[in-house]
Amino acid sequence: NGNAGFQQVLERLESDPVCQRLSLKSFLILPFQRITRLKLLLQNILKRTPPGSEEEVQATQAYDALEKLIKDCNENVQRMKSTEELIYLSQKIEFECKIFPLISQSRRLVKCGELTALDFNTLSPKWKVTTRPIYLHLFNDCLLLSRPKE
């Protein structure tokens, strides 16, 4: 989005009749859609092959290989999403001092959310409760507490 030249070229390419007015995103998703269609096709082939035949053995091997490929693709997509979340989070969070790098190959965000911290002022004769928002970011290897900038 930040590169105007790229956006112009992309718009020109997407409007080209050869692309059939499809976006770049649809071309990136197309191989995944084809893989899942192949899985359905192989399932139907397996239903119609005679049990114990050579065709069944070959179709089963192809189905198993395709399932492994789909599993690998899904894992890589999840890994990329996790990395994108870390990049987005590292752009939002500002550390007073760098304790550890937020973006790491092995680190992934498990859960995050806003909580309300309660502060009890015990110095005054009447207990005074103040609230302030804090954010919890649970990673697979650590827990990070943050608060909005004042």
Automatic annotation (TrEMBL):
Cellular component, GO annotation: cytoplasm; nucleus
Pfam families: RhoGEF (PF00621)
Domain DH residue range list: 1-76
Top-level taxon of the source organism: Eukaryota
Molecular function per GO: guanyl-nucleotide exchange factor activity
Segment forming the signal sequence: none
Coiled coil: none
A single BP term in Gene Ontology: intracellular signal transduction
InterPro entries, A to Z: DBL_dom_sf, DH_dom, Ephexin-like, GDS_CDC24_CS, PH-like_dom_sf
PANTHER family, A to Z: DH DOMAIN-CONTAINING PROTEIN-RELATED (PTHR12845:SF2), GUANINE NUCLEOTIDE EXCHANGE FACTOR (PTHR12845)
Protein name from the UniProt record: ARHG5 factor
The species this protein was found in: Pterocles burchelli
